[in-house]
TrEMBL record, chains A, B:
It comes from the Bacteria. CDD domains: HTH_LacI, PBP1_LacI_sugar_binding-like. Residues 17-71 form the HTH lacI-type domain. Keywords: DNA-binding, Transcription, Transcription regulation. Residues 329-349 are annotated as: Disordered. The lineage of its organism: Bacteria, Bacillati, Actinomycetota, Actinomycetes, Streptosporangiales. GO terms for molecular function: DNA binding. This is LacI family DNA-binding transcriptional regulator. It comes from Streptosporangium longisporum.
Length: 349, 349
DNA sequence: CGGTGTCCATAGAACGGTCTAGTGTTACTT
DNA sequence: AAGTAACACTAGACCGTTCTATGGACACCG
């Protein structure tokens, strides 16, 4: 389809212009064109102008594949995400994260190679990308405890940055948020409001950061002498609701619940309604990964806020560090901070 | 910096294995390796096995850049999205759409080249991608009325599929949902419930589908003799709320409002609360682009449902059609259909 | 035994750039 | 005037594949 006209010269040949066409039109050698294009010393200002004019007249852009082949830089980084499609759509996290990545890539005229996959395909995909020379490096997300990707991808020498605590990252550089500190802040806040029975709905237990948060939650509630309980879910509204129901059905139901993302917290608002509990009087709810979603609900949701956009940008920055062989790329990103809204309050006496 | 071990041979040479290394190890010529890899006739079963073993021992994958350079297929399609980062995060639409795209790409071991950009960069990005040989084709979204991308990208011969009505697509193939029919269905439904004053909060007026929906809305409300009003917003919660407030402040406020996406509809629930109006008794709300979001709120939101995942898949399918030079690729996708939930009901007398 | 296929395998030319090593010209030094 | 340095530009190798043309080996046929 799309019957279209082409610019003069390309149309005539029926193919895209190449560096040779440009060289011919400007009356120089291909080398000169390459030099002119990259602003390197070696051609006079006059010639350069002539070359660039010829290039734009022919609508020529250097073929990236050819450039990569000699130049060694493919101007691309890879990201593979393994979560069910439906869930991905709803989670604001990834899109914001990707936006952050792009904000750094754009400045370097690099692009993101994206793949949404099943978890067991990921090693394969990165192998293909790296060994096939499609990417300069990759970003690894959703790290598991003892993640099989770490040894496998280290083995093939993939330059990568891990999004997660260094303890999960093996030999890779990593950028992480201090989840433990954030959990402590959240629990202390609820304790200060007067809550004595506090629960938490976590993400999948296999995820590295779930474990880190769970450990921190256990430690800090013990330290403060709180009654604590954790239910495991998978970030989805469904499982979040179910976990929440189970917690509320227990004989001594908690007066405050912390959720590992905002979707589950939003879903919990509905569950509270089912139980005839009013938020925050009967039940305080505290979300994680604060997105605009938390401000859309009534009551608005208190949340542990996290600048996901900047986080993505920092991770990408770190990846370029790794690619360029810099040392000491790993570093913590800004810690999530508590944004109190209308869903948390002292418990009813 | 990921100090890592490499597989034997690559470590020794300090670089990735190439087809020559594989050929040498298997004791054949590079051509034979290429033939074996692609399952083409020309090598004996025995040799082939030897070659594949050598390849896997060296961890070799064909370099995509080199393959593209001769083979002409870059196994990549492009997608550039121009919306502010924050908004993208919240809109479930794009992630689901991308998931759908991926579901088709994955089967063909193609990848998606993604860029989040400012609107005025888009032509430039596609030029770069296409003329630089980075993509085999692109998907164009968020079509405007008289979109400048259409002539510009047709001119350079980019194979592309437009997401939107053919009237917006110029010479390009397109895949679209019948928005006009959906608007009619929505309005008829509200009219059948007994609503006589119906309003609509649209997306940006420059968007092609906003215009199509607005025209349909105007036509059908006139036909049914309803009092109709349209307010323009930009899909964001903020502007959605504001538009909703303006509608509700009018002397004869509407008893039902249709929104062009679900974010704005969710935001409107809050606004209704501000005004002391209960949904759906005092005010019916109908969302568009039904995502799980609509089921998370209380009351749940009635919505025009739209299988965005399949839509993405169909568009991608069509793009492959265009790339392969097939005719008659354009076609409508499934029309959105009404999912009545708790936010719509007959108006209070 | 020469002719004709068939099968296996290879040589070598693309593909479209980048980059190094070089050539030729001019200007400046001594 | 010879030497040299700076500059403008080019030839050609090279990156890692694919693909076409071709060659050799072997079997079958008349």
């Amino acid at each position: 389809m799309c019957h279209v006209r082409r610019t003069d010269a390309t149309a005539a040949r029926g193919r895209k212009a190449t560096i040779k066409d440009v060289a011919a039109r400007a009356g120089v050698s291909p080398s000169a064109v390459s030099i002119a294009l990259h602003d390197k010393p070696g051609v006079s200002a006059l010639t350069k102008e002539r070359i660039l004019r010829a290039a734009s007249e022919l609508g020529w852009r250097p073929n990236q594949a050819a450039a990569s082949l000699s130049g060694r830089n493919v101007h691309t980084v890879g990201l593979a995400i393994a979560r069910p499609a439906r869930m991905l759509g709803l989670e604001p996290f990834y899109m914001e994260f990707i936006s952050g990545i792009e904000s750094v890539l754009g400045r370097r005229s690099c692009s993101l190679l994206l793949r949404l996959i099943e978890a067991d395909e990921e090693i394969q995909v990165h192998r293909e990308w790296w060994q096939g020379g499609r990417v300069n490096g990759s970003i690894l997300v959703d790290l598991l405890v003892d993640d099989p990707r770490i040894p496998a991808l280290a083995e093939i020498g993939l330059p990568a940055v891990v999004v997660g605590h260094p303890s999960l990252a093996g030999p890779f550089a990593s950028v992480w948020t201090d989840d433990a500190a954030a959990v402590v802040e959240a629990v202390r806040y609820l304790a200060a409001l007067g809550h004595r029975r506090v629960a938490r709905v976590s993400g999948p237990a296999a995820l590295g950061h779930s474990v880190i948060r769970t450990d921190a939650f256990t430690a800090v509630t013990r330290e403060l002498g709180l009654e604590a309980r954790t239910a495991v879910a998978d970030f989805s509204a469904d499982q979040g609701s179910r976990a929440c129901r189970n917690l509320l059905l227990a004989p001594d139901r908690p007066t405050a619940i912390i959720f590992d993302n905002d979707i589950m917290a939003v879903a919990a608002l509905g569950v509270a309604g089912e139980f005839g509990l009013s938020v925050p009087e009967d039940l305080s709810l505290l979300a994680w990964d604060d997105s605009q979603l938390c401000q859309l609900t009534r009551p608005t949701l208190s949340a542990m806020q996290h600048d996901v956009f900047s986080f993505g940008a920092e991770v990408t920055h770190a990846l370029f560090g790794v690619i360029n062989g810099e040392e000491h790329v790993s570093h913590p990103a800004q810690s999530p901070s508590l944004i109190p809204r209308a869903s948390t309050a002292p418990p009813r006496r």
